[in-house]
Amino acid sequence: MLLDVSRLDVNYGRTRAVKQVSLSVREGEIVTVLGANGAGKTSLLRGLQGAVRPAGGKILFDGTDLTQAPPSARVRNGMMLVPEGRQIFVSMTVHENLLMGSYMRADADVSRDMEAIYDRFPNLAERRNMKASVLSGGEQQMLAIGRALVGRPRLIMLDEPSLGLSPLFVGKLFELILELNKSGISILLVEQNTTMALEVASRGYVLELGSAVLEDDAAALSNNTALTEAYLGGGHGPAAGGTHAHA
């Protein structure tokens, strides 16, 4: 098991955002986490990445206990978070943003990986010396994913990657997720577009009010109309996922 999370608690003061959540991601697997606004999805990812120190539970990554480790240790071990809203540095160039992804790498030579990113994302290559602020929303998302790839991740955690993107870019994004997975990267996907998420994932978890209320394979979840009505706001479109910072 690559990622093995057991009974995780994440608190903000007295607010329990994540309650006793257990989940796993196998090597080479795409797993999605679904839930309505405020379900605890982003808080779960923040707890896994160490941005918020877990109040309880255990996080094992390839057998290493990272529960109380700082975010830097998780990055070194190969866990990368692409946060909601991209969070790129708009005052820096595209190239400088990508270089930020290499800051925990022990080896100094990242040029080959940088060129691979530019080959994968030609739009970024054309704008490598421009400020990131000139990029479209879709290009900014590609930059955020490219920044994670420079760190040579084994697991990428994606938080609402399709949020605010045009339908055309959403299609490209999910093609990219499948490509990355085929290249050997495991994916933990928090996504508002329930239909697309379940198409690419092998398994899924549903959160409600911070707790995992359902786990099943993606096909079963996709055909579960009771799930859609009870936990995902009654639809498979953008309204079915969280967009809040503490969602």
Describe the structure.
The protein is built from ten helices and ten strands. Helix 3 (94-100) packs parallel to helix 6. The chain has a domain at 1-78 and 155-161 and 186-247: Rossmann fold. The longest helix has 16 residues, at 167-182. Mean pLDDT is 89; it is low at 235-247. It has a six-stranded mixed sheet with strand order 6-7-8-3-9-10, sandwiched between helices. It is globular. By secondary structure, it is of the alpha/beta class.
Strand content: 15-25%
Q: So what's the overall shape?
A: globular
- Portion of residues in helices? 25-40%
Within the largest sheet, what's the order of strands? 6-7-8-3-9-10
Radius of gyration: 17 Å
Succession of helices and strands: EEEHEEHEHHHHEHEHEEHH
The biggest beta sheet is recorded as: 6 strands, mixed
In whole angstroms, the N-to-C terminal distance is: 27 Å
Give the uncertain stretches in residue-range form.
235-247
Total strand count, please?
10
CATH architecture verdict of the domain at 1-78 and 155-161 and 186-247: 3-Layer(aba) Sandwich
What CATH first level of the domain at 1-78 and 155-161 and 186-247 would be assigned?
Answer: Alpha Beta
Q: Averaging pLDDT over every residue, what do you get? A: 89
The helix/strand class is alpha/beta
